[in-house]
Design brief:
It is built from ten helices and 16 strands. By secondary structure, it is of the alpha/beta class. The protein folds into two domains: 176 residues, Medium-chain alcohol dehydrogenases, catalytic domain (Quinone Oxidoreductase, Chain A, domain 1), CATH 3.90.180; 124 residues, NAD(P)-binding Rossmann-like Domain (Rossmann fold, 3-Layer(aba) Sandwich), CATH 3.40.50. The strands form three sheets. Strands 3, 5, 6, 7, 8, 15 and 16 form a seven-stranded mixed sheet that branches. Strands 11-10-9-12-13-14 form a six-stranded parallel sheet, sandwiched between helices. It is globular. One of its GO terms (molecular function) is quinone reductase (NADPH) activity. It comes from Hypericibacter adhaerens. This is Quinone oxidoreductase.
């Protein structure tokens, strides 16, 4: 059997649990592709899986997103051939690898105008932004929205896309440097939550009305205060836990704060069919190819140094997207 190298975990915990190992590489089975990975995406969800917050069956690979070249196709695969450039952003985990086998049904072809590093940096985040702003809460031109973690990889895509749609975008960040980066990527108002009360600032910006939607990938640290940023019948969209899981709340709180809506969506549920997957990917490719959204890859690490990349991500030392290079 062929061999390759991959990052593996045998127990949950911190970045030190990530091990660079030689692993077996099986031939592609029915419906599968054998991929040579060219760039791997780093996402906060990877840290949740590593820590056990989102449990995996151990031992396991890690990583959900990569750009790759098809080396071989398994029985029954149509639509792909050796040499095709592809990308993916979904389970099974194991993207942190030099080569791997992956389900053809979850891969998409990459357009010529998008390079491998950009693709690996944008597929998970960009398609998350797509469903959040086009389907979970379909934003309308002229609205004002609040997006937390504005200087993160997902936040920078969201700021540009929302601004392009004619939306006034308020973002939160944790430093003046990150505020500068957010402003450069479409945010009209940027709040440093370490030095400002973001609820008071949102109310000031909106003339006391609040916003119709809050997009929150931060979780525990901002969740309850975010409810106070919403206008009557506003929607709280909590889609991540960078600061920890959100607290349990009583449904009555939603009534008391203005008949609010609360949703906890996931990319998998918004790309659950092949048709949805392809439509979401195409919407992302179109907006990036148009030039309206640029995807900054601000950090790269050798794949074998993934543990350090995780440390830097969790310490908030990164901005924009980070890509791991096999």
């Amino acid at each position: 059997m062929a061999k390759t190298h991959a990052i593996r975990i045998t127990e949950f915990g911190g970045p030190e649990k990530l091990k660079w190992e030689e692993v077996d590489l099986p031939a592609p089975g029915a419906g599968e592709l054998l991929l040579r990975q060219t760039a791997c995406g780093l996402n906060y969800v990877d840290t949740y899986q590593r820590s056990g917050l989102y449990p995996l069956t151990l031992p396991s690979g890690l990583g959900l997103e990569a750009a790759a070249v098809v080396e071989a196709v398994g029985p029954g695969v149509t639509g792909f051939k050796p040499g095709d450039r592809v990308g993916y952003n979904a389970a099974p985990a194991g993207a942190y690898a030099e080569r791997r086998v992956y389900p053809a049904a979850k891969a998409v072809k990459l357009p010529d105008g998008i390079d491998d590093k950009t693709a690996a940096a944008m597929l998970l985040r960009g398609m998350t932004v797509e469903y959040l702003i086009r389907r979970t809460f379909p934003v309308k031109k002229g609205q004002t929205v609040l997006f937390h973690a504005a200087a993160g990889g997902l936040g920078l895509i969201a700021g540009q896309w929302l601004s392009h749609l004619g939306v006034t975008v308020i973002g939160t960040v944790g430093s003046d440097e990150k505020a500068r980066i957010a402003r450069e990527h479409g945010y009209h108002h940027v709040i440093n939550y370490r030095t400002e009360n973001f609820v008071a600032r949102v109310k000031e910006i909106t003339g006391g009305k609040g916003v119709p939607v809050v997009y929150d990938g931060v979780g525990k640290d901002v969740f309850m205060a975010s409810l106070d940023c919403l206008s009557l019948r506003g929607m709280m969209v909590t889609f991540g836990n960078a600061s920890g899981p959100v607290p349990t709340i009583e449904p009555l709180i939603l009534s008391q704060k203005g008949s609010l809506f609360l949703t906890r969506p996931s990319l998998g549920h918004y790309t659950s069919t092949r048709e949805e997957l392809l439509e979401s990917a195409q919407a992302l490719f179109d907006i990036v190819l148009s030039g309206a959204v640029k995807v900054p890859v601000n950090q790269t690490y050798p794949l074998k140094d993934t543990a350090q990349a995780h440390r830097d991500l969790e310490a908030r030392r990164t901005t924009g997207a980070t890509v791991l290079l096999p």
